[in-house]
Amino acid sequence: MDSLNRRSFLKLVATALGAGMLSPTPGSSKTTDPISLDEMIGQMVIGGFRGFTITPDTPIGQDIQKRHLGGVVLYDYDVPTHTPRRNIQSPSQVKTLGIQLQKISPTPLTIAIDEEGGKITRLKQRYGFPPTVSAQALGKKNDITYTYQRALGIAQTLKSVGITLNFAPVVDLNINPDNPVIGKLERSFSADPQVVTRMALAFIRAHHTEGIRCTLKHFPGHGSSSTDSHLGFVDVTKTWSPVELEPYKNIIGAGMADAIMTAHVFNANLDDKYPATLSKRVITGLLREKLGYDGVIISDDMQMGAIRKYYGFEQAIRLAIDAGVDILIVANNTIFDKTAIPRAISIIRTLVKQGKISVPRIEASYRRIRTFKQPIS
Prior knowledge:
The protein has about 375 residues and is α/β, with parallel strands linked by helices. It has one domain: TIM Barrel (Alpha-Beta Barrel), CATH 3.20.20. About 40% of the residues lie in helices and about 10% in strands. It has helices at about 5-20, 35-40, 60-65, 90-105, 135-140, 145-160, 195-210, 245-255, 280-290, 305-310, 315-325, 340-355, 360-370, and strands spanning about 45-50, 70-75, 110-115, 115, 120, 165, 215-220, 260, 295-300, 325-330. The strands form 2 sheets. It has an 8-stranded parallel beta barrel with strand order 1-2-3-6-7-8-9-10, surrounded by 4 helices. Strands 4-5 form a two-stranded antiparallel sheet. The longest helix is centred in the middle third of the chain and has 17 residues, at about 145-160. The chain is globular.
């Protein structure tokens, strides 16, 4: 950073400090110093890694300590190697891993997982965890009390091993039962937006009881697709309907949307150039402005085929942040690249230095993340 830009940045920091914008994360006893630009940028990334245990000297340990990584995501299966050797072996091991992660983090670390229930569960019975029920089974029963109790079981399991964020519930409508990534995997509660809303709210309330935050996904709707965005381009232009926004509208209106995850789906009726994750029209125009959502927006994995095969890493990061995404997931499980997390953080820093992303834009995401990391009251 040259001297002129540095003076401009320091002036912005001084202004922000005067407004209380860059105060430490509430509830954190680990830091009393003002938050730097590098720290704010680090909070905008959640990364995946290999290992059942970690130390400060492991790559993920370095990312947390030196690059201020905001969170990690745990998996039981390592896709690139096709082996069940990733992060999960047993309840005691996951709990110890969580303690290790938090211990080396200078600020409270988000520890996330996809624990939807049914086929999409990382904490499986074979590792010693309790059984779960799929969203589809819950939707068919359509009993709020039953859904709450089943979700409470998930939340209690997450809390017991130190996980703080569930990438669930799915609020995609089951418009295409043959959808390979939603319908066929029984991830949707229903094709009826009212059933989806009721079940999702019960699911979220149960998690909040245990202090666990939830993530609505996949905005603006993945339920009508016929292909998988993990693998490549997904076009829902002819199949998507505005009714797919109803669960989001309802849950946002109820004040129960902790975070919303974007979908890597292309819909020419919403944006004729970019998929949702990279679309300012979809993320800022539709979700922020039309639906009135001002909470945390999380990208789906930025290494998935729908993004990786069509956009450069730097281009995708720039477009996603410009679109309005607050947290980028670099899961390292569609492909594995040990440099991906530090590169993502470095790319954001460079984009700010080059003026392609503004400091106030980073501050806006940090404010949301700071609030998001507060304990649930």
